[in-house]
Amino acid sequence: MANVLHGFQHRFAHAVAFGLLALLARWALDGLPRASIWSVVLASVFGATDEWHQSFTPGRHAGADDWAADTAFAAAALYIWSRVRTAPILRTSLLRKVAPLTVAAMFVVGVSLAVWPALSMVQDFERPSLRSVPSQVAHTALDVARSTRNLARQLRSAAG
Fold it and tell me: I need a surface site. Which of 9, 58, 67, 97 has the fewest CB within 10 A?
């Protein structure tokens, strides 16, 4: 039973992470031709590099099924969002204000499932914690995120 629950937790964390990655990439690439396709490609490439990285990490294994699931989750998130955002109920101002909070909540849930070992359904499964990451790595990650955002803005202004 614990193995089944861990598998569900693992898939759910991947769904949240890669779904949000695709949505955020889509928003960053808004205005470019075929932005949705490029967002799924970006999430898929990220998933492939993540699986490649796992092949070098002791205790982890790379799997084509994880990569395919990551790509499917990215595509599904964009499809679902395209249907939800055109729904008449989202045209109300209250729901437009709640949408960013929902994305933030999903991000927190996904990160919580991926980072905190206490939430793991399998007690002997170990994951690295962000608490052990040096602050320099965290600052570098923030710099990469800012650079990516600035690049997306430049691409958007060049296309428009």
Answer: 58
What are the residues whose beta carbons fall under 8 Å from the beta carbon of 64, sequence distance 6 or more?
Answer: 51
Of 6, 10, 74, 14, give the one whose Cα is nearest residue 39: 74
The model scores a pTM over 0.70: no
Contacts of 14 (CB under 8 A, 6+ apart): 66, 69, 70, 73
Residues 15, 21: Cα–Cα separation, whole Å: 10
| Mean pLDDT (10-residue bins), the chain, 160 residues | 61 88 90 93 92 83 88 94 76 68 76 59 46 62 77 79
Q: How far is CA 148 from CA 48, 54, 153, 160, in A?
A: 19, 23, 9, 18
d(CA 109, CA 95): 20
